[in-house]
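_Per-residue structure_
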Amino acid sequence: MPNTSDSIFALSSGTLPAGVAVVRMSGPKSFQALAALTADVPPPRQAMLRALRGQTGDVIDHGLVVTFPAPHSFTGEDCVELHLHGSRAVFARISQELSLLGLRLAEAGEFSRRAFENGKIDLVEVEGLADLISAETEMQRKLAVEQGFGGQSQLYMDWARRLTHARALIEAELDFVDEDDIPGSVSDRVWADVAALSAEMTRHIAAAKTGEIIRDGYKVVIAGPPNAGKSSLLNALAQRDVAIVTDIAGTTRDVLHVDLDLNGFLVRVFDTAGIRDTDDIVEREGVRRAITAIDQADLVIQLQEIDSPPQQDKLQGLPEVLNVGTKVDICGQAQRFDLCISVVTGEGLDQLRGEITARLKQHWTGFSVPSRERHISHLREATEFIKEALAGHHLDLRSESLRAAASALGRITGRVDVEQLLDVIFSQFCVGK
């Protein structure tokens, strides 16, 4: 665990060289170091142009300087930002000077960890910021904003407050049951709300699929017999050559994939080996991997040449299968398929993209969803404790179950008992964040 009393610095902008390099400092020596570099400390939150000089008096660079006094900063400590020219040499010299002034290079995620430990953000917001930095699609950005700027945390804290209120009424009945001004029973006021809360949390957990799809992608597997056009379809959807295409059956022997952005959603499309019986040991392994990919898919596109005889449906029983006929430019339309396509002329490809998007959106429940397994695990734990409370008979035991449920919710935001998680969570950040 890093020493939180140290003053730290890091490059917080992109890889050098770049047009601008942002160097961030945080800690008690930040303003002192700035004064040594520029001979003064500008007013808070005002960008001022300054010459930065080394200890020998030579000018290192001219840049903008911004100060953020504690506690009104991202980390809750005194913070400084230096906006310099994005040269490797400039950053190397600034790093050298800051080290001589008693600052050290920050570890991965150390700025965010200090913000958490100083009460500026909670763990859900921390994870949301990490997701925002790595977001590649519009939906990933929107989900990260919902979580990174407190929307999701507010929901969990409201639930915890409702549990605390219920416990307070229960404790009142337990402690003051003989007093005239305490109701003889709090059941009507407490347990109806607890039951409603349990239903809300259950619906929230059920929406986890939306968060999984946004963060990790909607998994679409192209399956079918050899030479059905699976690799050609992957290349057509990707609009580049990803997979090798030949007339030889069994060319594809591993699972390949491309990532697509469809209407702001991340869609992962997988090309698989043709499913057939074979004596080739390598191809047999490819078939095994194809079956595994199919089992893990959100949607399976089952390809078959339109003029080929109908084959036994080996994908029967899967929840989402789209039957697609290929080579419509040669064979014409066929009613036995959900839709027909041609990767040569492009016919049907837009319809296929639209069908994938439509099926994806069937899972859509909005952005207030759990998006990490850690959140889902604690939410399930909390709902189990609430069920215990609802099913119990002794008020003191039912109150303890509600306390345990609130504690499980607190572990999501980091309010209680999360020390062992912190190194794992913050190590996923880049240095400088």
Summary: The chain has three domains: 8-121, 126-206+376-414, 214-361. Residues 244-253 have pLDDT under 50 and may be disordered.
